[in-house]
Specification:
- It is a single chain.
- Helix 1 runs parallel beside helix 2, helix 2 runs parallel beside helix 3 and helix 3 packs parallel to helix 5.
- 30% of the residues are buried.
- By secondary structure, the protein is of the alpha/beta class.
- Strands 7-8-9-6-5-4-3-2-1-10-11 form an 11-stranded mixed sheet, covered by helices on one side.
Length: 280
């Protein structure tokens, strides 16, 4: 890059348009396929990790991001696996932050927060704008059953992010028979903590053969559960994957209803895997 600034993206047309006419403004980057959690709805029974030589280097990713920003990408989200398992992620965020004068507007991350207590302040200082944290339960036993990991480090990571003034959202995947009985309790907890919460419908990820439609807790199920306890107003649908509901005129709850109410027609994201496969 030459150091000169470009025209702000709100005044530019996206050059990334797919065959369905969808303008792409967001890029999701998997930094690693490795994860220290063993979530029943996500992780294969016997995961086989990629060899390190097969994963894109940070230098390659930065070059790719420079090109994508020049074509109209405004928002980059770092994911995994668990992105904080990859050494050098803080420096990579610092490098991405230098793309903001060239059109990049936000740098986000999705994490299980297990290592966040160690990294929260450094992530904030490097230029991370916000963080999504997976939290499928606030009960230690339910959390352990679903992730095979203790909840304490995750709660410590959430507290560390709050102390570092790093904006966070909570993501909860609901699975019938596992944590669906905690919809109200988790919502009340997040509401009291003033942390945005998004429920995600259980979908076939890396375990498609194990996925069962009857285990899906739908958007309508969630709203019905919460309706007696909150004043709920559904908001107009935007490009966000979540349908947003306003609770008591002050708290935003999101529901990502991939199964019951697909939203592919409004998708404005690209995704690149750790080994460099690009998906629209």
């Amino acid at each position: 890059m030459d150091g000169s600034t470009t025209t702000p993206l709100e005044h530019r047309s996206a050059q990334l348009i797919d065959q369905f006419g969808r303008h792409k403004h967001k890029l999701r980057i998997s930094l690693t396929d490795r994860c220290n959690f063993r979530c029943s709805y996500c992780m294969p029974d016997r995961p086989e990790w990629l060899a390190r030589k097969d994963i894109l280097s940070f230098e390659e990713l930065l070059t790719f991001c420079e090109m994508m920003v020049s074509l109209g990408i405004r928002h980059i989200r770092l994911t995994g696996g668990e992105p904080l398992m990859r050494q050098g992620v803080v420096n990579f965020i610092d490098a991405l932050n230098r793309l903001k004068p060239h059109g990049l507007e936000r740098i986000s991350m999705t994490s299980n927060a297990f290592y966040l207590n160690k990294y929260a302040l450094a992530l904030k200082e490097a230029g991370l704008d916000d963080l999504n944290i997976s939290l499928d339960s606030i009960h230690a036993d339910t959390f352990m059953n679903m992730t095979k990991r203790p909840i304490a480090p995750v709660l410590e990571g959430i507290a560390a992010a709050q102390q570092a003034n790093l904006p966070i959202k909570l993501n909860c995947v609901l699975v019938a028979g596992q944590n669906d009985h905690e919809v109200l309790e988790l919502t009340q907890w997040a509401y009291q903590q003033k942390i945005a919460l998004r429920f995600i419908e259980y979908m076939p990820l890396d375990q498609p053969k194990h996925w069962q439609r009857q285990k899906v807790i739908t958007e309508d199920n969630i709203v019905q559960t919460l309706n007696p306890h909150f004043q709920i107003q559904k908001q107009a649908r935007q490009h966000d994957p979540a349908t947003i509901y306003l609770l008591n005129d002050q708290y935003t709850l999101g529901i990502i209803s991939t199964i019951s109410k697909p939203f592919c027609q409004s998708c404005n994201r690209l995704r690149i895997t750790a080994m460099g496969e690009l998906f629209t």
